[in-house]
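User: Teach me something about this protein's shape.
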Amino acid sequence: MIFAIISDIHGNLQALEKVLNDIESRKPDRVICLGDLVGYGANPNEVIDRIRQCADVVLAGNHDHAAIGLTDITVFNQFAFNAAIWTRKILTPENHEYLTSVPFTHSEDDLYFTHASPHNPEDWHYIFTRYDAEYAMEHAPTGIVFIGHTHVPNDHQTRNGRLINVGSVGQPRDGDPRAAYTLFDNQTGERRLIRLDYDIKSAGKAILKAGLPKFLAERLVKGR
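Assistant: First, the predicted structure itself:
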């Protein structure tokens, strides 16, 4: 079975549409979204609507919970805080309700999916280093785990299994501004990181038009 796994869209409709078109052309068996549909970008409602149409499974991200008042945003940096408040104001009642309904985790075919970490998923732990990955996999219920959250794709091989960061659709932070998502074949174990050019200029203009911080538009160009 082929899984297309996306994460961290962050209201970037331009990047999402490019990724969804690519996924459609490849015809995977399952589409899994690991959360952070909103936050930072200018089109949260449109992104949620598209994800609801195309994803077989959708999980909660910390920025999704921030937008509906379910997590503490005082720990956010200035840009994330401002974006969370803005998103909270413009979410439709239907999409607000939808974000309250999505779970933290999902399991199928001996694979485990979550936004941040298999260790207390609701606490949004970041996994940057090999040490972080080793610790997280000590708490994993399966030997293969998929995450997002850091916006940096990776494939950690640990003592307790494999921890795959699928990358970010809408705000990559690995120095490559192209949208990223992962294809995974659970029969062969092959992981393919897909990178796609999209209309970054239009995404940035939408951010500025919405009155969101200029920094959020500028970082898309840098992939940071």
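Now, about its shape. Strands lie at 2-6, 30-33, 57-58, 105-108, 111-114, 144-147, 154-158, 161-165, 179-185, 191-196. The mean pLDDT is 97. If you'd like, I can walk through any region in more detail.
User: That's plenty for now, thanks!
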